[in-house]
Amino acid sequence: MKLLYTDIRTSLTEILTREAEELVAAGKRVFYIAPNSLSFEKERAVLECLSQQASFAITVTRFAQMARYLVLNDLPAKTSLDDIGLGMAFYKCLAELDPKDLRVYGAIKQDPQFIQQLIDLYHEMTTAQMSFLDLESLTDEDKRADLLLIFEKVTAYLNQGQLAQGSQLSHLIEAIENDKVSSDFTQIALVIDGFTRFSAEEERIVDLLHGKGVEIVIGVYASKKAYTSPFSEGNLYQASVEFLHHLASKYQTPAQDYSQTHEQMDSFDKASRLLESSYDFTELTLDVDEKDRENLQIWSCLTQKEELELVARSIRQKLHENSDLSYKHFRILLGDVASYQLSLKTIFDQYQIPFYLGRSESMAHHPLTQFVESILALKRYRFRQEDLINLLRTGLYTDLSQADIDAFEQYIRYLGINGLPAFQQTFTKSHHGKFNLERLNALRLRILTPLETLFASRKQKAENLLQKWNSFLKEGAVTKQLQDLTATMETLEQERQAEVWKAFCHVLEQFATVFAGSQVSLEDFLALLHSGMSLSQYRTIPATVDTVLVQSYDLIAPLTADFVYAIGLTQDNLPKIAQNTSLLTDEERQRLNQATEEGVQLLIASSENLKKNRYTMLSLVNSACKQLVLSAPSLFNESESKESAYLQELVHFGFSRKDKRMNHKGLSKEDIGSYHSLLSSLVAYHQQGEMSETEQDLTFIKVLARVMGKKLDQQGLENPALPTSPSSKQLTKDTLQALYPADKEFYLSTSGLTEFYRNEYSYFLRYVLGLQEELRLRPDARSHGNFLHRIFERALQLPNEDSFDHRLEQAIQETSQEREFEAIYQESLEAQFTKEVLLDVARTTGHILRHNPAIETIKEEANFGGKDQAFIQLDNGRSVFVRGKVDRIDRLKADGAIGVVDYKSSLTQFQFPHFFNGLNSQLPTYLAALKREGEQNFFGAMYLEMAEPVQSLMAVKSLAGAVVEASKSMKYQGLFLEKESSHLGEFYNKNKANQLTDEEFQLLLDYNAHLYKKAAEKILEGQFAINPYTENGRSIAPYVQQHQAITGFEANYHLGQARFLEKLNLADGKRLVGEKLKQAWFEKIREELNR
After folding, report:
1. How does pLDDT run across 742-794, given as a tens digit for each residue?
2. pLDDT tens across 608-642, in order?
3. CB distance 58 to 24 below 8 Å
4. CA-CA distance, 938 to 977, in Å (whole number)?
């Protein structure tokens, strides 16, 4: 046994490789052992250090794989399970237990997270060389009983099924202990590199091999100061020094110092020594100069995205300045891999830097996993609509075209079909022939048949179940769909898809092994398949050697690459806080370690963590050979964060912190890197909207835009950045001729007019292209409105001899039985409840209709307009026609004046500002149309709110007060003529501001015609601007359609082209209300009309 250590700026791998070569010269077969996380890179490093560049006698490997190279005799052949199989074994054994048998874990016994924790505990105990019987020494007796019962069951099951237990290492230990190894131990040597602690298993192996006469060399990094110091607690090298002391005392060999003296102390050495002395409280004065600050930089950035961009630019720049460098000279370390993973790909692709993130990704989001998940959900929740839609959307189930799937989805959403019985019935409702039922029923059978066959299977033997599953995959054309999906992909993507399929088959194989001969229900099978797929991971290997390697910072070894960028080093990430998420607490681990014999050791994360973190910090500071950048963003995962205390310490020693920012306003020569990044900088520059100040910059940008423009032209692309706002083109003459031929009437409805003034483009989509909302056969605002309208129309048409209440009840009865309303309001319990609420509304509103002796209703749902009479003439002689429906026309008994009523489902009042801007033309249009039809005498136009008057009892003093409050809103709101107002009763809101003189009434109608004229001229010219209106000038209300997905209009970018509503020009601080406000608007209307 030989122990050695060296200072952290000398390469340990070089020293150990020389040792290995000496052992080879002595005729030994050398195993060079590295930790799991480093074995691939170690192999490369060892080869680079070898004097002959190659050697057959040295094998770089890990402890777990040594067994491959030793000859093992007559070991019983056992099938081995991996984590997925092991999880299934636990699942199977837990399923056989009654929840009452488990006092602590009964409720969660089949929870995937719990099973994962059991697997982790199983592995941990193997690594610690414990048997599950050691759990006897736990003090919590319920927990102890549960865990013993579970492990006993699983072990018994594995033994009976001839399934291997434990890890690869434990098998090797067993073989050596029982003399089953026929290799000659005296010819073997081990060289161990990169460890600062052994697990109990690893220590046992080293011990056994040492006893058999194997030559062993172990090397670590430590400083002489730390090794010779009598006190190691808190020292940066504590982990490696304690490791050396432990081995030295165990094998009675002193550790040798192989440190080399360097002529000149480099920047990283300075940083390491300063850090070390600050932890072991010794005095040390070292000057940090400019060169050191250049070599070890500390960056402070704003966001993670900016951090990555700055790193990418820095790499590009270095490659540009020095042609000898290549990507493999750079290394990127991440403080937290998960939060950088997505932006990393986006930004490095944009700068065209090849990178490899050596991290396995979960397959949870792959369509195949989602396919299994959807089938499990369909089985478990008995055919929920969204599960079936998700299944079809994976693109793997059945070879239906996208159009078929869309049609099917639209139909089942329209009818709100849910549950297996509903899907099994033939589709019959076609909504006035809009749906092709024959095609839909064919699709329904194609989709349902394979699923029904599968779901019909009862609990049965695993082998039969797998056969059923297999024929289901064939019937559903799943493999074919997966092949079609991958055929168009790039090679790298195809490799990943192949891995998914392998994982899928592997899960099925493990299932067959574990459940051979057992009875399994379909739901359990699907649940196991799904959890197996979710646990599976992609592993890809780098496509070329020349890539930038990206990894988590805690796996770094000293002297790894020339240039290292460590980013995301906030105080939450550095040092890493170890969390104990296992089933055993730290105290319980401590107790088990004390209760078991020497050499059996569970790892206690929290106590090991401090030592490990300090050693990690040392490795990090020394990871680079030429330049190291340590960086922390001020915003991490959208929340504020501080930089790590270690970075603050380095700043305190005299290394400088640089504030780094991306500058989008101007472009500098540092942007010259790759075509993509230049293009994105150009786009960003134009989106800023502010132009650069200097003449030189502007010239550069113009030239750049021209060059880029040419390059894009060659590819048939246009630069989207230059016109930054969404715009629409005018319709061509031919299109207009086809849409609005001169010999046909042009109709414009009041709702069309309002839509046009809300957003012109919205009118184009709705009324010109005729786009519709998705049809739903379920109660919505439109059907509620129609339902109430029909009730009132009926009630008012019934003969007068009965009391009004009686007529209303009869109308409710008859209307509820109409086919279209019955279909909607009987569809579900929710719809039935909605109907009850609507009937309450009808009865409350009926109260106004009942007590109104001053008027009589002469027409319900009266049509007006049409082609007999033009509504307005345009300047070019073209006529505009209006048609529509008035809910109700009333006549005053006193003098025969006419009024129109419109039912509304919410409180609506006539507002002059909205009317002036074209957003409220309904009532004036009704009046104008009736006037055209020959009516002369009017008393007003009004809204009636149909709603349940809910009153807050907090706001009123007594119940009588509540009744008064409620009846306040139950009034006709709108416009009334002054001269007729004396005839109107208490149900009319005759506020002064709502009363018009004859002259004002005429003005109102003239201005309304003016609004129609302006809109019609634009529509007939084919001009539809993208201009949703904004009321406050800061944002756009949610009910104003922006049609973002179609137009790309975004309020925060393009507010400048929104339509700002016209307001009154008032002197500062002046507010008008009531009648004065009305007068001011009429003044504005006069001005507008006189222009």
Report:
1. 888 899 999 999 999 999 999 999 999 988 877 777 777 778 888 888 888 88
2. 888 888 899 999 999 999 999 999 999 998 889 99
3. yes
4. 7
What six digits make up the tokens of 511? 């299932």
Q: What is the pLDDT of residue 156?
A: 92
Flag whether pLDDT at 722 surpasses 60.
no
CA angle 355, 360, 362 (to 5 degrees): 125
- pLDDT score of 340: 92
Q: What are residue 588's phi and psi, to 5 degrees? A: -65, -35
Give SS3 for 856.
strand
The pLDDT assigned to 161 comes to 80
Between 847 and 413, the more confident residue is: 413
Structure tokens at 976: 């009334």
Residue 867, CB half-sphere, CA atoms under 13 Å: how many?
4
How many C-beta neighbours within 10 Å does residue 278 have?
14
Mean pLDDT for the chain?
87
Q: Which helix (H) or strand (E) holds 401?
A: none
What is the pLDDT confidence band of residue 691, given thresholds at 50, 70 and 90? low
If DSSP codes are grouped into helix, strand and coil, which group holds residue 584? coil
* Closest C-alpha to 478, from 507, 443, 505, 516: 505
Query: Do 592 and 135 touch, CB atoms closer than 8 A?
Result: yes
- Work out the pLDDT band at 4, boundaries 50, 70, 90: very high
Binning the chain into helix, strand and coil, the percentages to the nearest 5 are 50, 15, 35
Distance between CA 440 and CA 712 in Å, rounded? 45
Beta-carbon contacts of residue 79 (< 8 Å; ≥ 6 apart) = 161, 162, 163, 164, 513
Provide long-range contacts, Cβ within 8 A and 24+ apart, for 643-649: 643/298, 643/300, 643/569, 643/570, 643/571, 644/569, 644/570, 644/571, 644/573, 644/574, 644/575, 645/571, 646/275, 646/569, 646/574, 646/575, 646/617, 647/298, 647/569, 647/574, 649/275, 649/278
Torsion angle in degrees (nearest 10) through CA of 455, 456, 458, 460: -80
- Give the integer Cα–Cα distance in Å for 966 and 50: 93
C-alpha 662/C-alpha 303 separation (Å) is 10
Closest to 936 in 3D by CA, of 896, 983, 976? 896
Could you give the CA distance from residue 470 to residue 447 in angstroms, rounded to a whole number? Answer: 17
The DSSP symbol for 767 reads I
pLDDT tens for each residue of 551-574: 999 888 898 999 999 999 999 998
More confident residue, 1049 or 216: 216
Structure tokens, 989 = 């809101």
CA distance 731 to 739: 10
CA geometry: angle 505, 170, 70, nearest 5 deg: 90
CA–CA dist 1077, 913 (Å, integer):
10
Residues in the chain: 1091
Asked whether the predicted pLDDT for residue 21 surpasses 90, the reply is yes
